[in-house]
Amino acid sequence: MTLLILAHPDYDKSVANKTIAERLQQIDPHMEIRNLSALYPDFRIDRAAEQQSLLRHRKIVFQYPFYWYNMPAILKQWFDHVLTHNFAYGSQGDKLKDKYLIASISVGSPEDQYQPLGKHHFPMGELCKNLAQTAYLAQMQFVPPQCLYGVAKMETAELQSQAAAHADRLHTLLNELP
């Protein structure tokens, strides 16, 4: 089964992330979706509940918008409070071993701007090294980030269409993983 950790600070106004999450839920009604902003508007993450959720699933997807070259604050808070010593890493920290870590990221700028000569200078894979290192430390299988680029310039109908297509590709990828 798959767990989707949704981290959008203003989910009700989201088009891309909301469409992706809703489409994935439509395709796979058994997918567990945890909307961090709805669950923890005060940022007080329930460590035990989140760790139990992680234990129930083999594939962990983090769905979020790319903010200032990073994840939203609530997702960083989640990482800090949930992936603890002797749970995710350490001498007894093998609880996530061999599970898959997949980042599904909505990105405002087009993909060509995330290149050495582009506006943002680095490809998304380089900007997501923190996720790769987290996966390696937790003995997880890291899947390169799945990005929906150019969302800032799309009209609503196109964005909904592109986000649904992104969700379909993500679902296909998830089904290809053992």
What descriptors fit this protein?
7 helices; 39% helix; FMN binding
Summarize it:
The chain is an alpha/beta fold. It contains seven helices and five strands.
Textual characterization of the structure:
This protein has 178 residues and is of the alpha/beta class. The protein has a single domain (2-176), classed as Flavodoxin domain (Rossmann fold). It is built from 7 helices and 5 strands, in the order E-H-E-H-H-E-H-E-H-H-E-H. It has helices at residues 16-27, 36-39, 47-55, 73-82, 124-127, 129-137, 156-176; strands spanning 2-6, 32-35, 59-65, 100-106, 141-148. A 5-stranded parallel beta sheet has the order 2-1-3-4-5, with helices on both faces. Helix 1 crosses helix 7 (156-176). The mean pLDDT is 97. GO terms for molecular function: electron transfer activity; FMN binding; NAD(P)H dehydrogenase (quinone) activity. It comes from Kingella potus.
